[in-house]
Amino acid sequence: MAGEIVERVVRYIASEIVDNAEAVEVEIIEESDSEVVAEVRTEKSDMGRVIGRRGRVAKAIRLVAQAAGDEEGLKAQVEFLD
Amino acid sequence: MEWVEAHGKTVDGAVKAALDELGLQSKEDVSIEILQEPKRGALGLFGGVDAIVKVTKVQREKKRRRRRRSGGDKSNSGSAGGGRSGGQGGRSGGQGQGSQSSDGGRNGNSQRSGERKPRGGRNEGGNRPKATGGGGGGSNRQKGNESGGASRGKGRSGERSNSRNQDRKTEAPVDVDINEQAEVGKEFLTGLLDAFGLEGTVTTRIDDEVLFIDIAGDQTEALVGPKGSIMNAVKELTRTVIQRKTHDAPRMRVDVGGYTERRRAALGIYTSKLAEQLLDDGGELALEPMNAADRKVVHDSVAGIDGVRSFSEGEDPRRYVVLSLEDGVKPRKASETSSDEVSEDDVTSEEE
Q1: Is the pLDDT of residue A6 over 50?
Q2: What is the pLDDT of residue B15?
């Protein structure tokens, strides 16, 4: 399935950073044959951790997700949703 | 060493901006060097120049805590950048304003202020040649930078109030074992490789309180990215996870397949080439935007080259290094030709 690596990577990273790993949800939306968006949901209190000050952590997650996308020939974006 | 330069209407404002940039809250954690005192413009309304400060993160968190009681040691301010501003004072005399700044000097470190020519005007100078290329992987850098800019600022309040303050509150912080932190980092990265489906090994090494983590393996190049952008992201995440799980993060370096050393070597060579070009032709050269680590490599290389100086301009993530000749250094080519070409001779002498 397209975006499998992206999903696994994003889920793994998010779970490592939050308090409540159980509540982490990652949904892959296929925008096109070559593009996916990973939608990340966490518990409200954990969102700050996943985004980080000045969005540093979110930025890092986006970059690593791009690398994960490259592995399967996809452009990958990440969206953080409340 | 982590440091940033920041601008502001006042020294205080600039320091605040710099602290923000470094993710620190207190001036206790940094040493402050005032690169330029702010000046009011005519009638206190127009013109004027911003304050520019260089703020350097002081050593390790643990040491800092101990020192705080005993009177602090802010005095070892940015010695790293010292000396590069040279004596430009004589030239700017025409403006008359001298150094009557409004609220400068309160930090004690201002002995160098005023020596430095106001740099404001140079910023948007426009017609300086842009050097492109840079030690490797030139073209598709934008990807990374853009996504960062967009997401800035969102999460500020979140993490600060949640984790940071709470961690600080706990009295007498337990000295976290760096070996344990190394183990946490290793575990995280091993899991990350796994999630990627990559074969690789993660090794850690501790040297002088700094945690070195190396990732090696056949396909791990995927974790380097254009100009090491992915590698830096991986480092950021590793730091976050360690901080999260041990309530403290050590100083650390993450390397993938020896990339850091290759990048450093390539940047060093690139910088010396540009420096040679400058020594020949004079002028200024702006390099493309780089992250702080790369800028430091460039500054360090320049520091070893006589006659050339370097400084940074612009705001992260598009902050870049500018190389120029030190004051009083004449470009080689100009001085060669000036003897036979009268017109050029005139031009150069007018400048003096």
Answers
A1: yes
A2: 78
Task: From residue B43, give the alpha-carbon distance in Å to each of B39, B40, B49, B97, B316.
Answer: 11, 8, 13, 12, 32
> What residues pair up with B293 in beta bridges, in sequence order?
none
Residue with tokens 């986006």: A62
Respond yes or no on whether the N-terminal peptide bond of residue B331 is cis (omega within 30° of 0).
no
pLDDT of residue B2: 64
Among B241, B227, B144, CA closest to B189: B241
Decide: pTM greater than 0.90: no
Helices assigned H by DSSP within B4-141: 11-22, 61-69
Q: What DSSP element (H or E) covers B34?
A: strand B30-36
| Residue bearing tokens 């997650």 | A61
DSSP state of A18: S
Q: Do A60 and B155 touch (CB under 8 A)?
A: no
User: In this complex, do A9 and B195 lie within 8 Å of one another by their Cβ atoms?
Assistant: yes
Q: Does domain A4-81 have CATH number 3.30.300.20?
A: yes
Return contacts of B26-32, CB within 8 angstroms, 24+ apart: B28/B64, B28/B68, B28/B72, B29/B57, B29/B58, B29/B64, B30/B55, B30/B56, B30/B57, B30/B58, B31/B55, B31/B56, B31/B58, B31/B74, B31/B75, B31/B76, B31/B77, B31/B78, B31/B109, B32/B56, B32/B74, B32/B77, B32/B107, B32/B109
pLDDT level of residue A68 (50, 70, 90 thresholds): very high
Chains A & B: contacts with CB separation below 8 Å = 122
Residues 206-245 (B) with a CB less than 8 A from some CB of A: 222-223, 225, 229-230, 232-234, 236-237, 240-241, 244
Would you list the domain boundaries of chain A?
A: 4-81
Q: Which residues of chain B have pLDDT under 70?
A: 1-3, 21, 23, 25, 39-49, 58-175, 334-352
Q: Are the CB atoms for B19 and B55 separated by under 8 Å? A: yes
Q: Do B23 and A49 touch (CB under 8 A)?
A: no
Question: What are the DSSP calls for B288-321, one per residue?
Answer: PP--HHHHHHHHHHHHTSTTEEEEEES-TTS-EE
User: What residues of chain A, 42 to 71, have a C-beta less than 8 Å from chain B?
Assistant: 45, 47-64, 66-68, 70-71
What would the two tokens of residue B289 be?
Answer: 């935007």
